[in-house]
Amino acid sequence: MNYFPDEVLEHVFDFITSHKDRNSVSLVCKSWYKIERYSRRRVFIGNCYSISPERLIARFPGLKSLTLKGKPHFADFNLVPHDWGGFVYPWIKALAKSRIGLEELRLKRMVVSDESLELLSKSFVNFKSLVLVSCEGFTTDGLAAIAANCRFLRELDLQENEVDDHRGHWFSCFPESCTSLISLNFACLRGEVNLGALERLVSRSPNLKSLRLNRAVPLDTLQKLLMRAPQLVDLGIGSYVHDPFSEVYNKLKIAIQRCKSIRSLSGFLEVAPHCMSAIYPICGNLTFLNLSYAPGLHGNKLMKLIQHCRRLQRLWILDCIGDKGLGVVALTCKELQELRVFPSDPFGAGNAAVTEEGLVLVSAGCPKLNSLLYFCQQMTNAALITVAKNCPNFIRFRLCILDPIKPDPVTNQPLDEGFGAIVQSCKGLKRLSLSGLLTDQVFLYIGMYAEQLEMLSIAFAADSDKGMLYVLNGCKKLRKLEIRDCPFGDAALLEDVGKYETMRSLWMSSCEVTLGGCKSVAEKMPSLNVEIIDECEQMEFNLDDKQKVDKMYLYRTLVGHRKDAPEYVSIL
Amino acid sequence: MVLEKDLNLDATELRLGLPGSSEESLRISNKRALPDMNDDSGVAAAKKCDQETAPPTKAQVVGWPPIRSYRKNSLQTKKTEAETGGMYVKVSMDGAPYLRKIDLKVYKGYPELFKALEDMFKFKVGKYSEREGYNGSEFVPTYEDKDGDWMLVGDVPWEMFINACKRLRIVRGSEARGLGCV
Known about the structure:
The complex is a heterodimer.
Chain A: H1 6-13, H2 19-26, H3 30-39, E1 42-45, H4 53-59, E2 65-69, H5 89-97, E3 104-108, H6 114-123, E4 129-133, E5 136-139, H7 140-149, E6 155-159, E7 162-164, E8 183-185, H8 195-203, E9 210-212, H9 219-228, E10 234-240, H10 247-258, E11 264-271, H11 280-283, E12 288-290, H12 299-307, E13 314-318, H13 322-332, E14 338-342, H14 356-365, E15 371-376, H15 381-390, E16 396-401, H16 416-425, E17 431-433, H17 440-449, E18 455-459, H18 465-474, E19 480-484, H19 490-494, E20 505-509, H20 515-524, E21 528-533, H21 538-541, E22 551-556, E23 569-571
Parallel strand pairs in A: 1-2, 2-3, 3-4, 4-6, 5-7, 6-8, 8-9, 9-10, 10-11, 11-12, 12-13, 13-14, 14-15, 15-16, 16-17, 17-18, 18-19, 19-20
Antiparallel strand pairs in A: 20-22, 21-22, 21-23
Chain B: H1 23-26, H2 30-33, H3 40-52, H4 69-84, E1 88-93, E2 100-103, H5 110-121, E3 139-144, E4 150-152, H6 158-164, E5 167-172, H7 173-180
Parallel strand pairs in B: 1-5
Antiparallel strand pairs in B: 1-2, 3-4, 3-5
C-alpha cells in the first residue's frame, strides 16, 4: 500500500461512502488518515455538542455536506425546555468564514433562526440542499432568503418544523432563473401560499421529482401542478376536497393517471373520502404511503384504498384503521417492511382503535416486516411471542401502549416475556422502545439477547437498579439510552462510568439519581458533559448532594463544556 | 403484582409526576390498573383507593404518549376545526323578502335539512325521486356548487353535498322542472 500514489488511494476511497467505513479507514495509518480527511465530502455529527465547527473545518477542508443533530430525542415530547440549546448559527458562521464550499445542510432538532438562514443563503455559492427536520426558530422570512439567494437550489425539504408563518410571498422570491429544483417539501407550513407563484415555479422545474404541498394548496391547483409535473416520483397532497362530479375533479383524474412515476404518496391534510377513487390508478405503483395526517380517511374508503396498494413497502397510518383495517393490510401488502400506526386521539377516552390483534395479523401476513412503530390500546405476551416468531427480521421495534404501565390484559402479567421473545428472536434488532407493565426481568432478557441494540427507550418500567445494570453490562453496541420515570439510582449510574464514553448519550429523567451521583460521573469522566436540567431551579437553593435530579443528560464530547447553556442547565 | 405495604418500597415506587410532589395525589395503584379481578375484596380495596387518591389523567403525564409536538398540534387543530367550524350557507327563496343562513353541519341528512327549510320558509318540499327530481312540488331545493353550477338537492350522498354546497336557493316548481330531468 505504501507504493500507491495518493490519487489512487483517493480514488479507492471514493467508493467508500458510509460514515462508519470512512471513520475506520481514517484509523488505519497516518497516511490514510490524511488522504481520507482531504477527500471526505460528507460528515454526520449525531450530537452538535460533541465537536466544534472549527475542529470540523480544520479536519475536513473539502467538506460539502453536513448533517447535524441538536436536542436529545426526548425533546420531541416536550421533556426538554425550548431554549436548552442546539443552535445552528455558530456552525453556519464558522463555515461561512472558512473556505468550505458547503452544498448541503441537514439539521434535526436544532434551533434555526432567520438570521442563520440568511447567512447560509448568502455565504455558499453552490449551496444546493437544505433539509430541516423537527427544527424551530425560523419564519417564512428565512425561507424567502433561501429562495431568493440560492441560485442553484435543488432541494428544500421541511419536515415537521414549527415555522412562524408570516404568510409573506416567500414563494415569489424564487427568481425566474431558478430552474434547478428537484425536491420541494413545504407541507408543514400552516399559512397561505402564493398559488400562482407555485404554479410558475413548478412549470420551470423540469427536474422536479418530489413535491409535498401544504394544506393551503387546493385541489384545483393540485390538478394544474400535476399536469405540469407528470414526472413526479414523490407527491404530498395538501387539500383534497372537492365535488367528485365537477369538471375539476375529472381533470384531476386525468392528471393523476399521467403520473406513472409516483412511488410515494403522503399528505391529504384535508380530505373528502369520496374523492379517493381518482388515486386508485397510481396505487399499484406505490412503495410508500403516509396517511398519518389524514384523520378524515377511515373505514371502508380507507380499506378500499389500501386494497389497491399491492407493492407497498412502507405504510404510515392512524389507528382509526382499526384491527380490521390492519387485516386488510396483511392480506394486500405482502412487500411491507415498515409499519407505523399513530394515535388519532392520544388524550381521548383510551379507545385506541388498534390492539394486539392488528399487529399479529400484520406479522402473519407480511413476513418482510422489519420496522415497527405501533401505538395501541393494549398488548399481550402471547401476541408478542407470535409476532417474534413470524417476524425475526425486526431492526426497529417501537411499541407504545397508551396506558404506560398496562399489564397483559388477559393474564394480568407484566410484558417481560413478550419483549423477551422479541429480543431473542430478532437478532438484528438495533432500536427498541418499551412500554406496558415491565419488571427487571425484561432488562435481563435485553442484556442477554439484544447484541446489536444501539438505541433503547424506557419509560415507567423496572423495579430496581438491576434493570439498568443488565442493559449497561449486556448491550455492547449501545449508543443511545433514554430513560424516564424508572427507579434507577446512583448505584446503576456509577457502576461502569467508562461505558458512557462508548455511547453517544444517556438521558435520565424522573429517576432516582442524585446530584452527588451525577457529580461523581462528571469527576471521573472529564470526556463527558453531564448536564442537569432544572427548570424549577430547585438546585440553586438546595445544593445537597442527596437531592434527586429531575433531568440529567450526559454525552461524550471532545470540546468540553458548551458555552451556550441557559441558566437552568448546570454542567457539572 | 400486589402492592406490599409491609416492605418499604417507597424509595423505588413508580410514580407519575415530579420528585417531591405529593405522594397521595399521584400514586399509581397496581390494583387500580387491573379491570378483571375475581377477588371481591380486592375490587373494594381498589375502589377505595380510587376515592382516596385522585387518579392521574393521561393529560397530566408530561410527554406521554410519546408523539412529536408537531403531530400533536396538528391533531388538536383538526379536532378543533371539526368541532367548532360551522358550515354556514345562505338560503334564498323565490319571493321571500330576505335571505336566511343555516349551518349545514347541524343536520345529519336530507330529511332534517328539509324539515328545517320547511319550518323556516313555510313550504313543503315534496317527494324526491331520482328520475323526476321533486316533480309535483311547488317549491324545489337547489344549491350552487363549487364550480358555480346550480344543482338539484338530493342527488348526491349527504357528505358530498355539504362539502360542495356554497349556497341554497328554493325555486318555484315551475322553474325547477328543467333541473329534475337531467
